[in-house]
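Input record (one chain):
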Amino acid sequence: MKPRVWYRKRWFSILVIVLTFAVVGAVIVVPVGATDSLSYCASCKVTKRAEKTWKHSAHKDVSCTSCHIRGGLASQVKWRLQEAKNIWASYLGVDRVTDKGQLPDNQNCLKCHPLSKIPDEQSGVRMSHKLHVGLRGLTCADCHDSVSHTKTGQSADVTMQTCPMCHNQQGAPDRCDFCHPAPPQNAHRPDYLKEHGREARLNVEACLRCHHDKERFCDACHATPPADHFGGTWRYTHGRSAVKDPTSCDACHSQAYCAQCHAVTHPTDWETAHGTIAAQGPSACLVCHPQAMCDACHEKRGVSP
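The corresponding structure, as predicted from the sequence alone:
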C-alpha cells in the first residue's frame, strides 16, 4: 500500500482550515472591530466637526455605531461588510463605496430610552412620546436634533420647529395650554413688549421656540404700524415720539435703518452751498426735511424758492 502524499495528510488539512479562518478573520472580523472605534468614524474630514460636538454632548459615552447604525442583524451586517470593503479599498488604492450616513432610527434611541420610562408630562410640558413616535413618520431625531451634535451658539434643548407640522391648522389642537398646562411664570420681563425687538433681531430662533407661528405671533403686530405712521408727516414729526420712548422704534427699526438719515452729515458750508444741489431736484432733501422747513428758512432770509 502506497503512503499518502503530504498534501493529503490530516495535519495539512487542519493547517488549511486554520489559515482559512485566519484570513476570514483578517478580512472581516478585524475591520468589524475597527469600525466600532471613534478614531475610525472621525477619520473622514466630513465627520471631524461631528466628533468635536459629540465630545461635549450628553451622549459622549455612546459610540457612533450605537446611534447611526440601525438595529437588526441585516442592517448591522450590511453596513459592516460595506465598511470592511472600504478599509481594504483604502489599502489597495481603489475607490471606496460612498456612504451618506443616516440619522439615528427610533430603534436606536429606544434601546436606552424606553417609552415606558418617559413621563407624559415633564418640565411643565405635556407631550406623550408613545403617541408621537412613528406618527406621520416622526423620529426621535426630528425633535431631539441637537442632543448629540450641537452647533456653536445652539441650544441642545428641544425646540418647537416640528410641532406646527400637526399643531397648526392640521387637525391637532393648537392652543398653547394643550401642551403647556401651566405656562412658566415670568417668562418675559415687564418691559419685554418694548424690548423684544432688539433681542429678536439677535436671536429670532429663541422667539420661535414658543411663538412657532411667525405669521400669527409676529406679523399680526408688525404688519400694522401705529396709526400715527399714516399721517403723512410721520417722517418729520417722529422725533418727539422717539425721544420720549426710543424702544418703541427699536421694536421694528434697527439702528442701521435710523442711521440712513440720522448719521448723514453736511459740509460746514452746506447752508450756502446746498442750493445748487437742491436745484437738481428736491427729493433728496425731502427724505429728511419737510418742505415747510425749507420754505420757512427761505422766507426768513428773503430767498426765492
